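Example 3.
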Amino acid sequence: MRKIIAASIAAGSFTILADRSYAADRDAGAQLAAMCASCHRLDVGNGGIPTILGMSPEMLTRAMLAYRSRERPSHIMRAIALSLSDEEIATVARYLAALNRQVRP
Amino acid sequence: MKSRTRREFGCLTGAMVLAGLAPRLAAGEAKAKVVVVGGGIGGATAAKYLAASTRTIEITLVEPKLNYTTCFFSNLYLAGLCSLESLTHGYKTLAQRYGINVIHDSVAAVDPVAKTVGLKSGPKLPYDRVVVAPGIAFNYEALAGYDEAATQIIPHAWNAGPQTQLLRRQLESMEDGGVFVLVAPPNPFRCPPAPYERASLVAYYFKQHKPRSRILILDAKDSFNSQDLFLDAWERHYRGMIEWLPAQFTGGIKAIDVKGRSVKTASETFKAAVANVIPPQIAGQFAQQNGLVDQSGWCPVDPITFESKLQPGIHVVGDATSAGDMPKSAFVANSQAKACAFAIAAALTGSERQSPHLFNTCYTFLSPDDAVSNAVSFKPVAGTIKIIDNFVSQVQESVETRHQAAREAQSWYAAFTRDTFR
Ligand SMILES: Cc1cc2nc3c(=O)[nH]c(=O)nc-3n(C[C@H](O)[C@H](O)[C@H](O)COP(=O)(O)OP(=O)(O)OC[C@H]3O[C@@H](n4cnc5c(N)ncnc54)[C@H](O)[C@@H]3O)c2cc1C
């Protein structure tokens, strides 16, 4: 039996969910969200660069597609939206929404 | 690491980005060890993301300085628009929140056979992987008359901190009507738009306080990054104040006369009231001394894992790398560090690795409320890294667009330094 180390910085509820596909999705989401964190404060911080926490996966996905199609202007968001596959956009959008649920008390 | 209460999660979102990753460790199993050399943007980001993505690796970050001052935004400090303290960041959060073992010392050498990293003060740290992020060194041999000692008289200010302060003091005590001579380096160098951003912001300072002063840029090159955007801005904001002389005009920079505070080119000698010489650059000394650089003076790396192509088990990120089309910027160092951290975590813990997404974005100030940006995406292709898309600001943009970019830049600084150090 493998003993699960209580991860101090990991949100407890994440480690309980042992479903393989969920875990894989979560890992991919976390690695993709790391990219967002270079510009977006993943908490309240706003001003100039909008916050992305608190958006539903549908809203986030729609925003990414709008950047990709140039409907919304932004150099960096366009470069990122073009670089990610549809599936990656969906994955990171789900991850950020789940992260938001963890942040809110 | 102590366990945390739910209430603390509100301020732990930086860590929580990676909360999903923590793989399991069998009871009693020894932790793998990673040593990170250098706590600049590349090293600090790599250490943080390794720590946050797995509980099963012991991470040590070795950095001589107690605090890190960012080069990005240091041109705003030169213009008198922010304090150096506001650009300075400590390592406490990395140690306390992420459990990183932060050691303030220099790494003297890495022994790839014994797999140890030797600290200057003596101790040797064992490792499974090393991440090396020593930044740049200056190739003084390539510039006659200028050396380490000369930097105390004619600063380069290409590492932020005391050098930036010295240059600011010289600008402050310069008489109105003096000439500020900026020597711009040959490619490749840290942050391609930065010498020209510096000229713009020093011109802004002169315009406010010393309006008769002038700026002369003596360039080792014949063209530079975003040249059209700069030339347009100089005409609009600082007409007649900034003169740029390319190498084809001067015949190139030949020598620096430190005592006489002048710069000799093939055609003419230029006397300065204040001089700022940015010398040619190579990978940080540590990389030079540990077999990580090739003839180019930079460190060749695997485009996916950032493992050195010369020394297995040693990864290099940031300015020291020669990573295909990727420029030397803080954003690139941060982007590479994340890809490298996930690759190392995958190799040491068996966790799953996503294919990396690599980006650069740079905000450049032309005046305090006129900024431009560029954004580039990259992809590993055939053993190197290639540009996929490149979006840049245009000359004809509206005042409001530029103003918005300046606001965005400020917001980016806060988020980015948080992503690296907190
Ligand atoms: C004026 C200016 C403006 C800039 N503006 C921007 C910008 O707007 N956007 C942007 O993205 N980039 C910008 N940059 C570039 C950015 O600063 C660098 O690309 C970035 O710092 C590179 O990170 P790094 O980790 O490779 O090196 P550094 O950040 O230089 O870190 C290297 C660290 O390694 C440590 N070190 C060295 N040797 C050893 C050793 N033997 N043992 C232990 N530690 C060691 C050093 O003390 C240092 O802290 C700018 C640069 C300049 C000069």
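Chain B has eleven helices and 24 strands. Residues 184 and 219 of chain B are 5 Å apart (CA to CA).
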